[in-house]
């Protein structure tokens, strides 16, 4: 598997279990790229939905992907604090300048005070039935949801207080470098 390089711009491709494209983020700046972890930043990036509709992200975001965890975490930097949106998903793969994963519908929204809501349980149940998710996938996702909720409660990984400061600074550094090259 290829490894994204720090400072390069990549796309993020989200698929559904049936292999169909779900959503594409046009530009994400790689802040860290290893075999196991990709941390990226984006701001006002174009997002294309499977039906062709497009929209721009509203605020700067730091994105966390891990090759062993069945979730990815989007840290949205808003004026009143950091909000987190977690997609329960397959671990990522990276090839041809694109980070790819399968979105498994369940989402967790985490507020600045670390309270959270589990979202789209009905969508997960419907897609599980429609796309015939194997029982092993269901178990992996439930186990990873439990792990994720532990991270939130323990303020671990992207939920740690210093995570945002470190990666926001790096994002600003790379954005400045890009601006200087233009």
From TrEMBL:
EC number: 3.6.1.15, 3.6.1.6
Active site (catalytic residues): 23
Entry binding sites for Mg(2+) 1: 87, 103, 107
Annotated family: Belongs to the Ntdp family.
Cofactor section: Mg(2+)
Reactions that this protein is recorded to catalyse: a ribonucleoside 5'-diphosphate + H2O = a ribonucleoside 5'-phosphate + phosphate + H(+); a ribonucleoside 5'-triphosphate + H2O = a ribonucleoside 5'-diphosphate + phosphate + H(+)
Pfam families per the UniProt record, alphabetical: DUF402
Source organism of the structure: Sporosarcina newyorkensis 2681
InterPro entries, alphabetized: DUF402 (IPR007295), FomD-like_sf (IPR035930), Ntdp-like (IPR050212), SA1684 (IPR016882)
Keywords noted in UniProt: Hydrolase, Magnesium, Metal-binding
Record's function text: Has nucleoside phosphatase activity towards nucleoside triphosphates and nucleoside diphosphates.
Protein name per UniProt: Nucleoside triphosphate/diphosphate phosphatase
Enzyme class: hydrolase
Ranges in a coiled coil: none
């Amino acid at each position: 598997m290829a490894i994204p390089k720090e400072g390069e711009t990549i796309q993020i491709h989200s698929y559904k279990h049936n292999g169909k494209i779900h959503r594409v983020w046009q530009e994400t700046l790689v802040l860290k790229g290893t075999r196991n972890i990709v941390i990226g930043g984006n701001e006002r990036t174009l997002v294309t939905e499977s039906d062709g509709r497009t929209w721009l992200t509203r605020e700067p975001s730091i994105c966390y992907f891990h090759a062993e965890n069945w979730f990815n975490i989007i840290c949205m930097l808003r004026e009143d604090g950091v909000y987190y949106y977690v997609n329960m998903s397959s671990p990522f793969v990276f090839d041809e300048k694109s980070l790819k994963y399968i979105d498994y519908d369940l989402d967790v929204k985490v507020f600045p005070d670390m309270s959270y809501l589990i979202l789209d349980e009905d969508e997960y149940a419907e897609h599980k039935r429609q796309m015939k998710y194997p029982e092993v996938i269901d178990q992996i996702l439930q186990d990873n949801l439990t792990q994720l909720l532990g991270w939130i409660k323990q303020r671990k990984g992207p939920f740690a207080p210093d995570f945002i400061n470190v990666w926001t600074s790096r994002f600003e550094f790379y954005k400045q470098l890009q601006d200087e090259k233009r």
